[in-house]
């Protein structure tokens, strides 16, 4: 992988990066930090012809995708993305894996996430007090009472969720979308960093962007750009006013 831009003067554009160097460049700060990871085509599509991100992923993107998971304490994903992308419990190469926190306004989880863990990562349900009672009860019965986070009264309060995850000892937070959850995280001021991959392809047609929902205006500044085989990946920090 080749370095294109870095904040540190010790890093020189054009340098070849081994695994250790790439890990150091993607390491976040020590305190609470919420980063969001997405892939997009050059014409702005957040998924491919089948409606899934897997068809626009590249090998280089996969390297960063798995690195970000290894650097995280918890992975936060919207329930719609869990269903479309076929998420199961997370697994790690060494047997360890961060918990998967699924944000669901209805309180419903896919059936396969309500089954016993079988040695894989934990699942947390994130919903609100007004969610479907039978769905919340099913999650509590299957996952345990502590695995259900009620954040907000009538809608999911993502700031509350962030604070709760930090309080649980999970300060390094990674969200993998989807676009609706990303829009809500931005609107509620919860995002610290965007990690974005540009896949070297265009797809045309009607596809979501990486952000959907209401309009937001959030300035970001570049922290890192790397490239391999035409795939460009970067880190952008949210600029606080």
Describe this protein's structure.
The protein is α/β, with parallel strands linked by helices. Helices cover about 25% and strands about 25% of the residues. The protein has six helices and ten strands. It has a ten-stranded mixed beta sheet, sandwiched between helices.
Q: Which features does this protein show?
A:
single chain; 241 residues; alpha/beta; ten-stranded mixed β-sheet; 6 helices; 10 strands; 24% strand
Which helices and strands, and how do they pair?
Elements: E1 2-6, H1 19-26, E2 33-41, H2 59-70, E3 74-78, H3 79-85, E4 100-103, E5 123-127, H4 133-143, E6 148-150, H5 158-167, E7 172-175, H6 179-187, E8 193-199, E9 220-228, E10 231-238
Parallel strand pairs: 2-7, 2-8, 3-4, 3-7, 4-5, 5-6
Antiparallel strand pairs: 1-9, 8-10, 9-10
Element-level helix/strand string: EHEHEHEEHEHEHEEE
User: How many β-strands, per DSSP?
Assistant: 10
Biggest sheet overview = 10 strands, mixed
Q: Count of helices?
A: 6
Strand fraction: 15-25%
Helix content: 10-25%
> Which whole number gives the mean pLDDT?
93
Largest sheet strand order: 1-9-10-8-2-7-3-4-5-6
* End-to-end gap: 34 Å
**Uncertain stretches:** none
Radius of gyration: 18 Å
Gross geometry:
globular
Structural classification:
alpha/beta
Précis, in short:
By secondary structure, the chain is an alpha/beta fold.
């Amino acid at each position: 992988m080749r370095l294109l831009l870095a904040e540190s003067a010790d890093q020189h554009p054009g340098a070849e990066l081994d695994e250790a160097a790439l890990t150091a460049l993607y390491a976040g700060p020590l305190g609470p930090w919420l980063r969001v990871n997405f892939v997009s085509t050059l014409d702005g599509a957040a998924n491919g012809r089948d409606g899934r991100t897997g068809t626009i992923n590249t090998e280089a993107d996969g390297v960063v995708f798995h690195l970000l998971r290894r650097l995280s304490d918890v992975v936060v994903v919207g329930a719609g993305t869990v269903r479309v992308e076929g998420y199961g419990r997370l697994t790690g190469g060494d047997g360890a894996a961060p918990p998967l926190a699924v944000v669901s306004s209805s309180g419903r989880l896919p059936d396969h996430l309500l089954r016993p863990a079988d040695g894989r990562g934990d699942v947390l349900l994130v919903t609100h007090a007004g969610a479907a009672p039978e769905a919340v009860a099913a999650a509590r019965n299957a996952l345990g009472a502590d695995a259900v986070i009620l954040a907000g009264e009538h809608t999911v309060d993502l700031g509350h969720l962030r604070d709760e995850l930090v309080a649980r000892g999970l300060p390094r937070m990674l969200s993998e979308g989807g676009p609706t959850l990303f829009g809500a995280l931005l609107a509620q001021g919860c995002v610290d960093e965007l990690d974005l991959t540009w896949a070297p392809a265009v797809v045309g047609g009607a596809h979501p962007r990486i952000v959907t929902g209401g309009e937001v205006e959030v300035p970001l500044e570049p922290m890192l750009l790397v490239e391999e085989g035409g795939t460009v990946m970067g880190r952008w920090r949210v600029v606080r006013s």
